[in-house]
Amino acid sequence: MDAIRELLAEGVFHESTMDQVAERARIARATLYQHFRSRLDLVDAICETFDANPALLELRDTVDLPDAEAALGATVAASVRFWSSENAVLRQLYGAASVDPAARDLVARQRSDRRGEIERLVANLRRTKLLRPRLSPDRALATLMVLTSYETFGELRASGLSDRGITALLQEAARRLVGRD
User: Fold this and answer.
1) Could you please report the per-residue DSSP string of the chain?
2) What is the pTM of this model?
3) Domain spanning 39-177: which CATH class is it, in words?
4) Where are the domains of the chain?
């Protein structure tokens, strides 16, 4: 996993071969193939490491908090922490998604997983009557998907905002665009 993360951080994973991964990991090629049949399997293994990320675990727990307003802010904050903690890897995977099927699959699965969590958050906001009046759940979902996306995080980071600044900006936007006044 360390070799894969290094290659991703260096921006060369999508050009790397299984042989180069084995060499970087200082293991025999046959050993690598015993555990991973393809580059797609390597990307899947990276996904499994994401599942243990504390920020992602927190995000999954926060969407159902009884205090839906707190859930909204906590979900945005946990999203920023996750993107920040995995930025070196995700920047490469998201960048390679247009040309690398393994990266494209990871991005699609990540978005699908996030969509499920955000749907739960919207249901919580609706159930507790904290969803903005006349805002449909579909519009709330779309808005929150944009606000919690890696692309939004990347744009705000590129503009020079710190994680704290990104979190504050996105929490305020989420409250104003989705939450009840």
Assistant:
1) -HHHHHHHHHT-GGG--HHHHHHHHTS-HHHHHHH-SSHHHHHHHHHHHHHT-HHHHHHHHHTT-SSHHHHHHHHHHHHHHHHHHTHHHHHHHHHHTTT-HHHHHHHHHHHHHHHHHHHHHHHHHHHTT-BPTT--HHHHHHHHHHHT-HHHHHHHHHTT--HHHHHHHHHHHHHHHTB--
2) 0.84
3) mainly alpha
4) 39-177
